[in-house]
Amino acid sequence: MPPQVPLTSLITEVEDKSEQVEEKKIAYKRQIIWRSVVRISILHILAFKGACLVPYAQTWTLLWALSLYILGALGVTAGAHRLWTHRTYRATIPLRIFLMICNSVGLQDSILHWSRDHRVHHKYSETDADPHNSKRGFFFSHIGWLMVRKHPEVLAKGKNINLQDLYNDRIVMFQHRYYRLTLFLFWLLIPMMVPVLLWNESYSNSFFVAVVFRYTALLHATWSVNSFAHLWGMRPYDRYIQPVENWAVSFAAIGEGFHNYHHTFPHDYSASEFRFLNFTTLFIDACAWLGLASNRRKVSAEAIKRRINRTGKSSIQFDY
Q: What is the pTM (predicted TM-score) of this model?
């Protein structure tokens, strides 16, 4: 018969292990990447100049900048997020190529890296393994996470995420291999030269307004999903998780602000209950009508009601 261990010894052992865990957390030292800080600072200085030039830009240039904003956003929302990260619908090759180009217009890292980080974010949300853990504060979750070294847990857990479907996707890997070339063409050259060549806009207005200012605005819209939509809003579907419903973010990020719903039902292609108030969803629906998208995954109204009754609060329902 094995010797019995005193209860006090077990308690002491558990306390010692808890202290070790705490020591590991304390041992993590934030390392600022000053090169990133400088780059982000310069970008915002140039964007401020672009904002000052908006009143002097031609109307067609402003419309062009808005169009680029929407295209870049779709590359993230309909492309990297709903198609490649969560596989919530299927897209034909022409649509996938279009979304890849739009993703390059948005310049938010390659589809491969963006999808990897987002899968890690969903699996380890609000932990040290979350790339933009909102529990580390608003500034960190909004922009600060891009200015410091990743927490070791992000790197460790990220290695365990299955990305084989992305490695097998020729379009994803093409963009990843030639990412700088796609950025030069679709983020800089074409956006800047179209106003100059088609309606004689100045190079200055074209670059600072149509390229830098609209790009920076889109960045903040996307970052707001990580910050505002994880901190301030309602939790009608699951009150036990951090993400919230934030209508302002959804407007800026063309449908990605209904975050409590999305984290509750990440496989829903609409990423929200309100399909008709979601620009990205309407875009995917239009593509389906054209035969470019199919197999749109969605959650039934009955399943939503059951989840609300179990973990959330009442919510306005729209028929599918």
A: 0.88
